[in-house]
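Exercise 7b. Backbone tokens:
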């Protein structure tokens, strides 16, 4: 029987650390590229310096002192920024030299590095920042996100429509229906989000491993082991992602006990309008996210790789009702200390 690896994310990280390796976070590259590694974002960053160089050259020309040496000097800032922006990270190609060598280092040097977690009401003292104020999230309750600036936020997950497979008349009908929905929402501020998430094949992989363990044929187990490795590669590939669409609404928090009810009513109205916007095969499925789903959604936005690896464990950890919570290293030290006390007691 070939043993299958079912270790958790923490165990995998510890095993890599023992080998002197680290697992880099998998980030989705959402930039649009103009040519090769040159993206529209690169052009947007370099363009002001090119315009500055052209303006300085024009002033020198008007002054009558224009020559090749001064032309080179005028475009030196543009050339420096271009070199820093177009040189990419050796592993993570979506990061430029300017971003990870200059901007990130400056931010890491000047940012506050120590935060504490405190229970109780917000806001707290300005001199003593809390992790909740850094994340902008005070609480998740009653199917709502409570922000640190006292706003209630509701998130609706909406299915998508593939316009590329429609004829012109069908496209026009869909866009017209969407325009009518925007005009008739009755909400002054709504946010539409598209979040790229990796394909989660964890449950399928667990089922597949069970099938492999039950198979007595050595050849079939070896073949299925290779298939399991392919599933892992698919999950880690940044090209294999699913894009989910969300509609977000919010309202200011007051001392009224009806705040949650008003936002819930608004969400239900928007859900009904979205479901009635289209019909037939194009009909949209709309789901209002509840507490556990909101927790996974928010965690995926701030910690992409760990959220994918942890999965449902994030909800279990958050809902754990414990008087004392300790870290991994502290827990190991406590276990060793407890074993030592037991050995000393029974010697």
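Sequence design result:
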């Amino acid at each position: 029987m070939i043993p299958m690896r079912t270790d958790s994310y923490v165990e995998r990280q510890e095993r890599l650390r023992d080998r002197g390796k680290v697992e880099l976070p998998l980030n989705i590259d959402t930039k649009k590229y103009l040519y090769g590694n040159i993206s529209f974002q690169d052009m947007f960053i370099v363009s002001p310096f090119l315009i500055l160089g052209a303006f300085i050259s024009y002033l020198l020309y008007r002054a009558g002192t224009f020559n090749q040496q001064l032309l080179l000097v005028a475009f030196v800032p543009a050339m420096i920024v271009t070199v820093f922006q177009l040189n990419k990270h050796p592993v993570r190609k979506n990061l430029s030299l300017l971003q990870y060598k200059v901007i990130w280092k400056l931010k890491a040097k000047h940012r506050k590095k120590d935060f504490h977690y405190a229970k109780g009401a917000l806001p707290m003292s300005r001199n003593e920042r809390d992790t909740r104020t850094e994340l902008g999230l005070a609480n998740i309750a009653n199917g709502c996100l409570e922000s640190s600036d006292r706003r209630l936020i509701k998130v609706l997950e909406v299915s998508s429509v593939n316009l590329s497979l429609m004829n012109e008349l069908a496209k026009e009908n869909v866009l017209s229906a969407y325009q009518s929905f925007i005009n008739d929402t009755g909400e002054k501020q709504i946010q539409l989000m598209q979040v790229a998430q990796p394909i989660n094949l964890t449950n399928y992989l667990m089922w597949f491993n069970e099938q492999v363990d039950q198979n007595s044929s050595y050849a079939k187990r070896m073949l299925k082991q290779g298939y399991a490795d392919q599933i892992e590669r698919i999950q880690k590939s940044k090209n294999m992602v699913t894009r989910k669409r969300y509609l977000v609404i919010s309202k200011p928090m007051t001392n009224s006990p009806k705040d949650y009810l008003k936002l819930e009513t608004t969400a239900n109205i928007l859900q009904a309008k979205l479901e009635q916007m289209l019909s037939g095969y194009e009909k949209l499925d709309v789901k209002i996210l509840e507490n556990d789903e909101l927790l996974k959604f928010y965690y995926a936005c701030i910690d992409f790789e760990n959220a994918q690896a942890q999965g449902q464990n994030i909800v279990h950890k958050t809902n754990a009702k414990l008087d004392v919570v300790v870290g991994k290293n502290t827990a190991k030290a406590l276990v060793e200390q407890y074993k030592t006390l037991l050995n000393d007691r029974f010697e």
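Instructor comment: Confidence is low (pLDDT under 50) at residues 1-6. The two ends are 41 Å apart (CA to CA).
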